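Teaching note: in complex prediction, the entire set of molecules is handled at once rather than each chain in isolation. The prompt given to students was simply: 'Predict the structure of this complex.' The entities are:
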Amino acid sequence: MDFSLTEEHKMLQKAARDFAAERVRPLIREYDPLHKFPRELLPEMAEMGLLGVCIPVKYGGAGFDYISLGIVSEAMEWADASVRETIAVHTALNSLGIFQWGTEAQKQKYLVPQAKGEKIACFGLTEPGAGSDVAALSTRAKKVGDTYLLTGEKMWITLADIADHFLIFAKTDPEKRHRGISAFIVERDFPGIQTGTIEGKMGVWTSNTGWVRMDNCEVPAENMLGEEGEGFKIAMSCLDNARYTVAAGAVGIMRACLEASVAYAHQRETFGKPIAQHQLVQQLIANISQRHDIGELLVQKVGWMKNMGIRNTRETSLAKAYCTEAAFASASDAVQVHGAYGYSSEYDVERHLRNSKAAVIYEGTTQIHQLLQAQYALGFKVDKPLRRELPPYDAALWG
Amino acid sequence: MKAIVLMKQTPDTAQLSASMDGLKLMAEGGPRIVNPWDEYAIETGLTLAEDHGGEAVLLTMGKPESTEAIKTGLAMGCKGATLLTDDAFENSDSLATARILTAAIQQQGDYDIILAGKSAIDGDTAQTAVQVAALLGIPYLGYVAKIEAIDFDAKTITVVRAIDSGRETVTSSLPAVVSVLKEIGEPRYPSFMGIRKAAKAKIPEMGLADLGLSADEVGAAGSNVQWPEVTLPPAQETQLELIEGEPEEAAKVLVQKLLAEKVI
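The expected output is the structure of the full assembly:
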């Protein structure tokens, strides 16, 4: 057993963490009160290779492994959830979906520019009336000749107003529940698609969250991802990738909260000594530290499983549920360590607390993941092989 | 165009604390980084290579662990690197270091410009680059804030230097040794593709014998400066006072206070 990072991983981690500290966090501190999406970071992230970190070089990516996707997600969310969300949606939900399920032509047309960061992509599954209950989605796809006409509305879509490409899930057979869902690659320029921004969120203020409305949106039949009726399986496999980035990002929040709390505890004095000397403050810090290390181990295991090509739906679900709840609890503890100052926007921990609440809801609520874990434990759910699995990492093939 | 960038690995002084003083950090290891000033030299070399064609290569003298810093430079885009390392090089002062660097430069073939940061954050002597220029017998342009013009065919360079009394514009022949300041341009982040290449790179090493130097020219034996003790500067006591009120009133109070303290 080897828990050490490779030299390549360490260099990647340092570069990503430097970028997060020097570029991302200062910009987020400025933009968060303005609820402004840091659009200028996208070309910089593309230039570095952040937007295609684990995509093979031949498809425009940087050719790192899946562990690296976790490393950059952790580094970005240390600064703020929104930038990690961009990676989750663009790289994990959309690009890895095309990498796993797409035809060679789809990979060349859509994956290559996405991995290079020339085009930004998002994921349209959730609807006003269908969140955790995916099979209840009501967007329809009707085939007319060589075109599908998509009609319906997607809600809570990260990057809705930013993305060039959308991976949209719609029912090609409304009579069937999840077996009637198909996946489509939709371009912003296709006739019949509109997007807008959702205001009034509790947190993640620098992330673009919105809605996507389609009214007989014309999508060429060749843009169907996978086969007709395969959409549910595609969506779930995409979520296996994105939930991994959510879990890794939550570890980043915990690292940020730990660092901030330790620094503040050494500096702030009460009753004639630094609060770091008070045992109940030590307990709060011990809790954050413990959660961080447990979360990191869960994330590392999922990264390793992905590299090995081992199905990881159960482990990813567990990591996502644990890490996001742990990050929320840790951000709350960090605010407590900071006292009244922690309740002020002057300190990052206030933002982390607001942001971390979102992650216990999106990409499957904690309750959905608890049900999944119970189903696995009780033997009610067993993962079956997919028609197309996410390829295991192979350094030679990745380039 | 070939730019040789003199780059040093230094302790991460931001990590220094009372419990880990500078000497201990340098002797026993600890968090190490590319000398931050040298990052600006790397950026200058890479920009010149992009604008004029050619390449920037790194030259580093240090312990074997300096490969870590070298790989950061390679990941930023440098095309090659040489590590000058030998037990005999230990405790070299700036002049001995300059002898070692000069011997290596003379084995590099044709070059157009040698770049360095204005100083290194550990020793902070700012002597090595100028001593390299002197030993090579080429011009030295120090504290360069901007390259105003450069013509590799005509072998001329015009730079803006920061000097005590302001700025001066200087034209020199090439090749020259140029040490740069922050204003020269913000260093780029290593690209992920660059990291993958750099992580796999084998860094060629040269020692005393390869450079044709004798043991009494380098290390402690070849140095006039010794470092018997290195300590952190004493912590400065500071006081913070917030002046409340409207900006105009606050400014008046501030001026009074500065006058009272004889700052202005």
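Point out the following to students. The first strand of chain B starts at residue 2 and ends at 6. Residues 36-52 of chain B form the longest helix (17 residues).
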